[in-house]
Amino acid sequence: MTKKNSVFIATSIDGYIADKNGGIDWLHSIPNPEKDDMGYMEFIENIDALVMGRKTFETVCGFEIDWPYTKPVFVLSNSLKEIPEKYLGKVFLINGPLVEVLKQIHSKGHGRLYIDGGTTIQQFLKEDLIDEMIITSIPIILGGGAPLFSKIPKELAFELIKSTVFLGQITQNHFRRKRK
C-alpha cells in the first residue's frame, strides 16, 4: 500500500486560510465563470481518505450542501463525542497521537491521505508527517485570520514540483517533501 499524506489548500498571499471571522468567501474573489476546479477533482481521485479536524468538519457541515466527499473522512477531535447521524458510515471520529491515528487509518486500507484544516495540517507538519503540499494562492491580503503555518520544531525542506497559474491570477504551487 502506498502511504502519502497530502495537503491541497488555498491561502491568501499573506498565508491565511480563513479571514479574521473564520470566513472563506474571499476564496471566490477572482471571477471563475468556467468553474475551473484547479486540479481538485484530479487530486481527490488519487486519495483514499481524508483526515480533518473538528473545525473543518463543522465548517463543511455548515455549507448547506450535500456531503461533498465520496471517500471516508476521519475527523480528529478530542471534544466531539459523536458524529451526526446523517454522516454515519461516511465520517469517523478518531483521536490520539498522530502516528497511532495513521496506523489505524492505514490498517483500514487507506494509505493516500488528504490532510485538511489549519490546525490539523500544523500538527502533521510539527511531526514531519506531510509528504506533499499543493498550495493555491489567492491574490488578496487578509491581514489576519487562521494561518496555514505555525511554529515547528525544525526546518522542513520541500522542493517545487510544479507551478501553475489559473485564471491569469491564481498561483498554485505543488511541493514535495525532501527527505534525506
Describe the structure in brief.
By secondary structure, the protein is α/β, with parallel strands linked by helices. 18% of the residues lie in helices and 31% in strands. It is globular, with a radius of gyration of 16 Å.
> Radius of gyration, Cα only, in angstroms?
16 Å
* Overall CATH architecture: 3-Layer(aba) Sandwich
N-end to C-end Cα span: 22 Å
Which homologous superfamily in CATH is the superfamily?
Dihydrofolate Reductase, subunit A
Give the integer mean of the pLDDT values: 96
Determine the strand fraction and express it as a percent band: 25-35%
* Helix-residue proportion: 10-25%
Low-confidence stretches: none
- Largest sheet entry: 8 strands, mixed
What is the CATH C level class, in words?
Alpha Beta
Shape: globular
Strand order across the largest sheet = 5-4-3-6-1-7-10-9
Record field, number of beta strands? 10
Give the topology, please:
Layout (H helix, E strand, L loop, with lengths): L3 E9 L3 E3 L21 H6 L3 E5 H8 L11 E4 L14 E4 L3 H10 L4 E5 L1 H9 L5 E7 L7 E2 L10 E9 L3 E8 L3
Parallel strand pairs: 1-6, 1-7, 3-4, 3-6, 4-5
Antiparallel strand pairs: 2-8, 7-10, 9-10
Supply the key terms.
single chain; about 180 residues; alpha/beta; Dihydrofolate Reductase, subunit A; eight-stranded mixed sheet; two-stranded antiparallel ribbon; 10 strands; about 20% helix; globular
What does this structure look like?
The protein is 18% helix and 31% strand. With 180 residues, the protein is of the alpha/beta class. The strands form 2 sheets. The protein has an 8-stranded mixed sheet with strand order 5-4-3-6-1-7-10-9. Strands 2-8 form a two-stranded antiparallel ribbon. The longest helix has 10 residues, at 98-107. The radius of gyration is 16 Å and the shape is globular.
